[in-house]
Amino acid sequence: MITIDDKRLEVLRKKLKTEKSRLEDELKEIEEGILRQSQSEMTGENSYQDSFADSGTVTFEREKDLSLERNIKDLLSRVNKALECFKKGTYGKCAMCGQDIDPARLKTLPYADLCIECKKKEENSW
Fold this sequence. Notes:
Blueprint: H1 6-36, H2 39-43, H3 52-88, H4 103-108, H5 116-124
Helix pairs in contact: 1-3
């Protein structure tokens, strides 16, 4: 059984809070950018002066922003879940098997909720 000392736990908690703030700022920036777009840009329609390439570029940028927004929301959800585990006292425990998650894994991915073995099982089930 691997345990994490209180000092390292505090470092990880601060890292999660910093990451949460960063992700919230990124999400806000993307959402504000999407709201600034005109209705025709959002639907992919352009004026008659715009070329097909311009229309394609607008569509590509819109899809890219939506994909980034989904990814950021997913990461933010994971970070919030990890911070909730801190409150419950379950941070660092695997959500599947209940064993301790390796501190090196948490250092790399502080929002990890599965140990390496359970993550491998999850990936192999796809």
